[in-house]
């Protein structure tokens, strides 16, 4: 439908969107206007702007948790082997 706004509720802001938000807020746009322009919630825009003003960066923070023991390439190889021979154990 033309003109219908699509909201992305679950996905995170991309680096491009973060840059747009910072640029628009720096230019003096209101949070509501920026949120409408990038099709995100005012809450997401406000959080992005607060991080920029507090830390001076808009990059995502590193996540805590265990480090990966195998690479994503090795993961794909394991999945491929399952299709080749499904009776083999892990």
From TrEMBL:
Record GO cellular component, one term? nucleus
Name the source's superkingdom: Eukaryota
**Where does the record say this protein resides?**
Nucleus
InterPro entries given for it?
Answer: Homeodomain-like_sf
Q: What is this protein called?
A: Transposase IS30-like HTH domain-containing protein
Source organism: Trichonephila clavipes (Golden silk orbweaver)
Q: Tell me the name of the encoding gene.
A: NCL1_35029
